[in-house]
């Protein structure tokens, strides 16, 4: 059998091109720094088209591989404005965009975005460029899926086809500091499709599709504005994500699913691979009979992990203290899902910093005041669009006295005595987390959902309003 392992893993670790002068200040690897750099270029080049700008960025980062040229043209030929980047911004942008993983497991070319997730800029910008090209040059939108996700997924599935499918994607990682992010370390050995590359690919597919469909009368906004609207939004109290109709980053999984799922992903990935091989004159690779199976198995994991499952913000991201002692393993699958509200904090959290602060406060209370080894809950649902990892899938929690070893305890941040959580937060728990748990083998398919108050006699948790709501949910039993 042909082994593709080395062939495709090599490009992930090549050294990047060092520019003549080092920047004097260390730049933060967050989306805001990137947007500010983009804004500076726009401000010093009035009238600059966003398409010219993304092309200049592609050229800066050296993303002129054969497939990109096939769909978008060579950036060195198309850029009528190479002079728009100053020397120092060139150096910064090259480093910011160029994606690599070092031998030490540090992923570069990625930025921390305000919602607490991490995004690779290259696939994001390729998606935006495809969409802008279609819109501004009046050409059909081509290549959005292959450029943002299709190629990476296909090559990742194939390069690791000798490993179980779950190893062919990911991983996520941790920033050295969420306030001053500089180094992003992956949590295990990388695939070509790290979480950040997939997040950037989803965002690129969403923004590219949206731009390509702008009505004829509407001109695309400046690139900095496009990125700010998607990443730097404000959610309002009382409605949160329920009131949001435009596309924003915490909705990337559901929106990318609605755009891409109707496309027949298996065929799309196979076609993308065939194109890559044709362009690289390596068609012989496609003759291997295992290719179709590798893609099929890989896509099943992709759909489960990135679409069915909600994105879970890992402990390192919210600043968790270590577990005290040794965690006790849970015996899986468990039969019960216990629903809680936190009561205190009593307000739903709407941003990554606020939800993280709430998580740290609850962990502090459980460890210091209660003397427990860790935050009690298995998972906690924010109203920012994300679920926060407590004790996680594999470890015994401390949430529902007498029942901890037979179920997960999941809490929505807020006091739901008189009001309900947002629809979005409830759906994350009811549909996404539950399905993710069942499909992942952590929760029995015929599991029972109970409110905390049904298991013990001393609490009104999860609050009167929320409890009457969950009584109508599937899997709820009296
Ligand atoms: C770039 O432009 C030159 C001259 O205009 C042309 O001959 C060449 O084919 C172009 N290359 C690509 C890759 O588009
Ligand atoms: C929780 O909500 C109830 C009903 O709105 C209210 O009476 C109670 O004081 C609230 N508790 C906290 C801690 O906010
Ligand atoms: C759920 O399914 C398992 C295995 O199929 C079975 O042993 C168990 O009795 C079922 N539990 C309930 C509550 O129906
Ligand atoms: C709670 O109290 C009720 C009535 O006092 C009793 O019937 C029930 O068994 C108790 N439940 C638990 C879990 O202790």
From TrEMBL:
Q: Name the Gene Ontology biological process terms.
A: immune system process; peptidoglycan catabolic process
Q: Where is the N-acetylmuramoyl-L-alanine amidase domain?
A: 322-463
InterPro entries recorded: Amidase/PGRP_sf, Amidase_domain, PGRP, PGRP_domain_met/bac
List the GO molecular function terms. N-acetylmuramoyl-L-alanine amidase activity; zinc ion binding
Q: Pfam families attached here?
A: Amidase_2 (PF01510)
Q: Which domain of life is it from?
A: Eukaryota
Q: Which residues form the Peptidoglycan recognition protein family domain?
A: 310-456
Secretion signal span: 1-21
Is GTP-binding there in the keyword field?
no
Q: Give UniProt keywords alphabetically.
A: Immunity, Signal
Q: Which family does it belong to?
A: Belongs to the N-acetylmuramoyl-L-alanine amidase 2 family.
For this entry, the protein name equals N-acetylmuramoyl-L-alanine amidase
Q: Origin organism of this chain? A: Channa argus (Northern snakehead)
């Amino acid at each position: 059998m042909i082994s593709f392992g080395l062939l495709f893993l090599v490009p992930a670790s090549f050294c990047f091109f060092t520019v003549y002068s080092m920047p004097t200040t260390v730049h933060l690897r967050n989306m805001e720094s990137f947007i500010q750099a983009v804004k500076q270029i726009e401000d010093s080049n009035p009238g600059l088209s966003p398409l010219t700008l993304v092309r200049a960025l592609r050229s800066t980062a050296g993303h002129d591989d054969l497939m990109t040229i096939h769909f978008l043209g060579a950036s060195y030929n198309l850029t009528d404005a190479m002079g728009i980047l100053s020397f120092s911004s060139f150096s910064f942008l090259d480093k910011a965009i160029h994606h690599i993983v070092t031998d030490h497991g540090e992923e570069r070319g990625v930025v921390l975005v305000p919602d607490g997730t991490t995004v690779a800029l290259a696939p994001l910008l390729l998606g935006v460029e495809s969409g802008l090209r279609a819109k501004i040059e009046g050409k059909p939108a081509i290549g959005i899926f292959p450029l943002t996700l299709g190629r990476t997924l296909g090559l990742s599935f194939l390069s690791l086809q000798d490993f179980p499918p779950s190893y062919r994607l990911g991983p996520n990682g941790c920033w050295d500091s969420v306030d001053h992010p500089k180094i992003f370390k992956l949590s295990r050995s990388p695939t070509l499709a790290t979480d950040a590359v997939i997040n950037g690919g989803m965002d690129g597919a969403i923004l590219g599709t949206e731009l390509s469909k702008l009505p004829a009368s509407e001109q695309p906004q400046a690139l900095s504005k496009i990125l700010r609207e998607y990443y730097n939004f404000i959610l309002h109290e009382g409605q949160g994500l329920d009131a949001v109709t435009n596309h924003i980053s915490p909705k990337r999984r559901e929106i990318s699913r609605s755009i891409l799922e109707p496309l027949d992903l298996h065929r799309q990935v196979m076609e993308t691979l065939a194109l890559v091989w044709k362009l690289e004159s390596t068609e012989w690779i496609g003759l291997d009979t295992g290719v179709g199976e590798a893609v099929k198995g890989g896509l099943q994991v992709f759909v489960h992990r990135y679409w069915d499952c909600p994105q879970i913000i890992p402990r390192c991201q919210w600043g968790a203290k270590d577990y005290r002692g040794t965690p006790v393993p849970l015996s899986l699958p468990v039969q019960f899902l216990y629903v809680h509200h936190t009561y205190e904090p009593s307000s739903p959290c709407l941003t990554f910093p606020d939800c993280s602060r709430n998580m740290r406060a609850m962990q502090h209370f459980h460890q210091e005041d209660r003397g427990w080894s860790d935050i009690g809950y298995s998972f906690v649902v924010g109203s920012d669009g994300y679920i926060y990892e407590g004790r996680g899938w594999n470890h015994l929690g401390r949430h529902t006295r007498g029942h901890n070893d037979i179920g997960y305890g999941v809490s929505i941040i807020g006091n739901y005595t008189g009001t309900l959580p947002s629809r979005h937060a409830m759906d994350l728990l009811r549909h996404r987390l539950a399905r993710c748990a069942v499909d992942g083998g952590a929760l029995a398919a015929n599991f029972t959902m109970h409110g905390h108050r049904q298991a013990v006699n001393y609490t009104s948790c999860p609050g009167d309003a929320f409890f009457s709501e969950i009584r109508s949910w599937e899997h709820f039993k009296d």
